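Hello Y.,

Per our agreement to keep a running log of every chain we model this quarter, I'm adding this entry. I've kept the format consistent with earlier entries: sequence first, then predicted structure.
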Amino acid sequence: MMGSKIIVCLRRQNVTAGVWRRNRLITLEHFEHSEIGHENFARWLGRFSGATCHLLIDSPDESLKLETLPHVLGIGRSAMVRRKLDQFQPSHVYKAALCMGRESEGRRDDRYLFTALTQEALLHPWLDIVERSAHPLSGIAQMPVACHRLARILSLSTENLLLITRHQHSLRQNHFVKGALSMSRTVNATSDAPHHLVGETEKALLYLLNAQTAGTSAPLQVVFAGVEEAGLADAFETTCQVIPSQILEKQLRLADDTFSQHPDLLFMAVIALHGCPGNLAQPSQMARSRSQQLRLGLNLAGAALLTSTAVAAGIHISTAIQLQQEAEDLSKLTRQLPPYASAKPHSQTPSGKQLYATVELASRIEHSYRTPLEFMQVLSAALDKLPEIQLDKLEWQLGEHATVLPVPNAPQFAVVEGKIHSRDATLLNTLVTHLKAHPSIATIENEQPDVAKPLHGNTQSPNTLTPQTFRLRIKFKEST
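Predicted structure for the entry above:
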């Protein structure tokens, strides 16, 4: 089931898992936190071999922190964010930094939302089952970040917004200031009565007023998404909006009355259709997913290349046939001219033999080049054995100076760039050895030789290891 997506929502009460194919929900299952639930989940996963898996965690114990950092670009920015992330919840492994835009005044610093998973015990049993099942892990996200993505999808103004959403056993209140998520809290939904919802919302408004967390002069807007009890829109002095479930179901391509039975499908569908930033997964856990994405990209690129080659060949043949027909028509017309016309000089027209020679030359030029498809297959097979290596760029060049002129037997090159997420300095040499074994490759030049040196004295932990970059220039033998 390549191309399918499995979204698993983890809560303290139970676990909900759904499968999306072609952006449509095709099945939904619930599992309990028990050994029997784990076994049922493992068997259920086995029905969808090859599908990617994304975990969504809904826990009342969440660690969120909004912080401003100087606006820096390049390597300095990555190092600064990495250092701040290490200082944030140092005892926890699963954490991420999400850029929320820039300040509008002063130095225009960057705003980052730092998020960490504090309830790792909720994640580990289900993550272990996913990893043992060999399903590619596409990411781990927390519910507040999914709520932030929902606000973007609904085109809500987040200058000063309180977004309230319904979940299976709770309500979630999300406060946004100047486009950034500043607060996300869960309250128990002990009752669906309007006075209960109004009371919980008034508590949130009072908390925001007392804490002075708004930090903006914009009026506060309250939006209920999928919470549509009668009287909510008129219960507050501030601007209030109710987004009915029907609109959400249409926006996220779900069947009617879906949210009334499964409220958490709202955020599972958000991730399935629009993705989710703030990925908490470690690079080593994402290796299988990156490899699958690479294979899919190479297959698509190969299919596109074959299609374009077939179209170009068809154009060449069609042009040659048309020229030959025009030459024959011109020859017939010449023979029909009066006798005195034959005494006058006339321009030469190509003969049939010349036209056939032209077509043959075009065919030789076309077949004198290698297509990238064969090399893509070789590279994909090599990277499958080295999940620590990430491919960032693949460039195809014709000639020493990357010319695209149709010069027969011009040398061809492939430039491969990527990163190595490991301290093992022999991985790049292993990749080069795999590639050199192919008979079409003449030479491989490492344009960043420092990468292959052993990393002596490297005391970085696996979570803070800076990836090593590499650039290989591969020359191919002449086609025969």
